[in-house]
Amino acid sequence: MREPNSAIYRPSILITGGSGLVGTLLTDKLLSLNHKVNHLSRKPGTGDDVKTYLWDVDKGEIDESCIDGVEMIVHLAGAGIADKKWTDERKREITESRSESIRLIYDVLKKTRNKVNTVISASAIGYYGDRGDELLTEDSNPGEGFMPQCCIEWEKAVDEGKQLGLRVVKFRTGVLLDKNDGALPQMAKPVKLFAGAAFGSGKQWVPWIHGRDVVRMYMHAIENINVTGVYNMVAPEPVTNKQLIRAVAKQLHRPLWPIKAPAAFFRLLLGEMSTLVLGSTRVSAQRILDDGFIFQYPHLDEALNDIYG
User: Fold this and answer.
1) Whole-number Å distance between alpha carbons of 70 and 206
2) pLDDT digits (tens, 9 = 90+) for 95-131
């Protein structure tokens, strides 16, 4: 594998899930640095700068020319975790959209001459489950429940790339903070309506990260071949749900009610999916720090000030 040099090395990259929030942000960054970027999608693309290849994971169909000239794959594809109620069928869809999609690409790599040397994949801090105040590192055991099991299957499928001699990187992503997409607008909505309150006990840990640091961490893995294995993609300063809602209220110049939104309400409304709101996951960012990564937004107040400022 060639040693990347920021001045001359611009690997061609195939992104699955390129039309999502992270995919869009990462594509824009890569194009600004003159990388060639391709997308794999269920729908034809509309941009002139990115070539979109079609696939249908459920049918096992893929345009095999998607890997022509590609050196790295960034795997972000997957059905929205919180988009629909967690029925058994939806759980299967959430898991297989992540695991079977990367296996479909690996099948192409096995039978086609190619230049691919690296797979960088999203995963999720859902791997750890609801763990209270326990400080979790990449070596911690997975938790129990649907999300941990989904992440186990997801990462297991991605790791099959090692058998092909690929460098494999997996980022267990926390709550990405973005003004217009993801979890933050949903948390900010009641605050804007002067109804802001902590969720449940408010003591549950929220492993957050600024969207710009998400992109920078992917770039860190793209540009450094020594980055390998699994990393927690979270800011080094975890906060509780109450601290997060209070900080959002401060930025929006709104009051925060002393009462809390009852946990029973979320369980009744969301069922098993309420673990996404009520679960506590205190995650360490030490491994990526030890690899030399420097966060642009390590502190919550700085991140929110940038987002809302």
Assistant:
1) 36
2) 999 999 999 999 999 999 999 999 999 999 999 999 9
